[in-house]
Amino acid sequence: MILDPKIGGWLMNSDHPPITFQQTAIALKVSLPEAGIGQQPEEEIFKDMEALSLVGAALHTRLVQLSLWTIFLHLEMRITPILAVMELRDIRVDRAILKQTGQKLMLKIEEVEQRCHQVSGSVFNVASHVQLRSVLYQELKLDLKTGIAIPRTTKGQKSTCEAALGRLKDLHPLPGLVLQHRLLNKLKTTYVDGILACLHGSCVRAAWEQTAASTGRIQCHHPNLQNIPKQPVTVEVDGSEMVVRARKCFCSREGHLLVSADFQQTELRVLAHLSQDAELLAGFRQPNNTDIFKQLTASWLDKAASDVTSYEREQTKRVVYGVMYGAGREKLSEVLHITSAEASDIISSFTKRFPSIPAYIKSVIKVCRQQGFLTTIFRRRRFFPNITSHDTAVQSQAERQAVNFIIQGSAADLSKAAMVQTEAALARWPDIDAKLLMHIHDELVWEVHTDHTQNFCDMIGRIMEDTQQLCGSLVHLTVPLPVTVSTGTNWADMQPLNCS
Question: What is the number of alpha carbons within 13 Å of residue 332 lying toward its C-beta?
Fold first, then answer.
């Protein structure tokens, strides 16, 4: 097994990791042997190996002291070769679908621009914040028609950000049209132009970064496949709808299928395990994959689950994640499109109904203040020096980061463990033609030969739901981790498969 000092240095301090070998040595207080002048090649190699040995020994000692050696050796070092191989694998892309989507988006963008000019009574660059600010606040004077405070930029100017437009869209058609214009542009530039720029023939090969995120999450770029929305994105302009399915262009080779295995509500399940909230635990322990958000809504509103509407369920989901990650009443009011007072009432009502959740969040912040760091369920460690800052804004940000790390970092640990376990199983079954292509946070995607699909799906379903095998001796999870296994010829049309 390869032992990579860069990964070890990142584990020691994920916010400010050493980048070079020399920086790693300095961080470990190791004096490297000096290179001699005019050395022979074999002497240079000997010096390099001596330096590597010294750093390796110091790294081992330090990681053991920080209780990070297990996660370094048995998780991160097993992830490294998996990511290296993934970067060499072609992911098929249907160029025709991509171009067709781009053309439709371009036509819709032009249509929205024309509507912006019509409703405002002036021709201007819709993408220009300066010109938009002039139209909104000088020509239409929308800020004078509402008692709602308009956010300002760092230079003190009235903002044209999403929050500002959201507060103005009920007063005039223009703000809503601008929001649609921005969404359409994002869809085109990110999910069409961005992928086309990365195409080599009919394939892309993504770059996977192991040490880019402080939470331990694997990140992706060129293209960023993790940023492609799973659900169809609907854009509505004047009653006309356009549905964009950004995953549609990613497809399997002939004779193969894409197979995805997706953990369900991982972060919320981690929160249930860590907080031991009775409502959450009871909901997750019910059989038949019951809808946890519908259950929570029913409990919160004191009504039967069958009477819960999709709107109420969605509101509950947003409140849960908002409270989990420290969203205040202002942020929640923007997300739910309600007043600050209403958001405050909702937060108060929710925390009274589920007191273990805010109590746990407070305990996390308290522990972090006492020791200066936190650890995930796999003992991944992150330091938070700003948790005791005298600057209230800086301290609040550190508190949100602390809660985010312990939940999201634990979810990342589980996802990485699933990669390690499934790849180890495939190594024991070389006759199964299956190649891991993508890691999308809680979702893994393979390309599998059609003859092997059912056996493969049965295998990965069993492995990923076996929490004892995933976690080993590190932690005993008190909630199940159900996995939805789906198959399809393209990434947008995956259908759940019943695994034995």
Answer: 25
Mean of pLDDT over the chain: 92
User: At which residue do the structure tokens 């399997």 appear?
Assistant: 252
Contacts of 57 (CB under 8 A, 6+ apart): none
Contact assessment for residue 406 and residue 384, using Cβ atoms and an 8 Å cutoff? no
Q: What is the pTM of this model?
A: 0.92
Over residues 40-74, the pLDDT tens digits come to: 777 778 888 889 999 999 999 999 999 999 999 99
Alpha-carbon gap, residue 108 to 361, rounded angstroms: 44
Percent of the chain at pLDDT > 90 equals 72
Long-range contacts of 198-206 (CB under 8 A, 24+ apart): 198/222, 198/223, 199/93, 199/95, 202/92, 202/93, 202/94, 202/95, 203/90, 203/91, 203/92, 203/93, 204/90, 204/91, 204/93, 205/87, 205/88, 205/89, 205/90, 205/91, 206/86, 206/87, 206/91, 206/438
**Separation CA 289–CA 458 (nearest Å):** 18
Tell me the backbone φ, ψ of residue 151, rounded to 5 degrees.
-60, 150
Tokens of residue 180, six digits: 């649609």
Joined together, the tokens standing for residue 276 give: 């031991």
| Domain identity same for 114 and 238 | yes
pLDDT band, very low/low/confident/very high, at 38 (cuts 50, 70, 90): low
Q: Are 275 and 357 in contact (CB under 8 A)?
A: yes
Rounded to an integer, what distance in angstroms lies between the CA atom of residue 461 and that of residue 483? 6
Residues 365 and 395 in one domain: yes
Same domain, 51 and 136: no
305's tokens: 């689950």
Which domain range does residue 475 map to?
256-266+413-496
